Amino acid sequence: MAGYPLAEGVLTDQVAAEPIRVGFGRGLLEAGRRDERVVALCADLTDSTQMSRFLDAFPDRFVEVGIAEQNLVTVAAGMARAGMIPFTSSYAAFSPGRNWEQIKTSACLNELPVKVVGSHAGLITGKDGATHQMLEDIALMRVLPGMVVVCPGDSIEAEKATVAIAANDAPSYLRLARDATPVFTTPDSPFELGRAYVLREGSDVTLAGTGALSYELLVCADLLAREGIEAEVIHMPTVKPLDEETLLASATRTGAVVTAEEAQVAGGFGGAVAELLSACQPSRLLRLGVEDRYGESGDPRELLEAFGLTGAGMAQRVRQFLSR
Amino acid sequence: MSRREPLPPGEIQAMAETLRASVMHMLAEARSGHSAGPLGMAEILASLYFGCMKHDPDDPAWEGRDVFMLSNGHTAPILYAALAHAGYFPVEELTSLRQFGSRLQGHPERVSLPGLESTSGPLGEGLSQAAGYAYVLKKLHRNPHRFVYVVMGDGELNEGNVWEAAMFAAKNGLGQLIGIVDRNYIQIDGATESVMPLGDLRAKWEAFGWHVLEVNGHSVTALLDAVQTAQAVVDRPTMILAHTIPGKGVDFMEYDFRWHGKPPSPAERDAWRSAQGLEPAGFDHVAAEKEQ
Question: Which residues belong to any copy of the Transketolase-like pyrimidine-binding domain (chain A) (predicted)?
Answer without folding.
Answer: 18-183
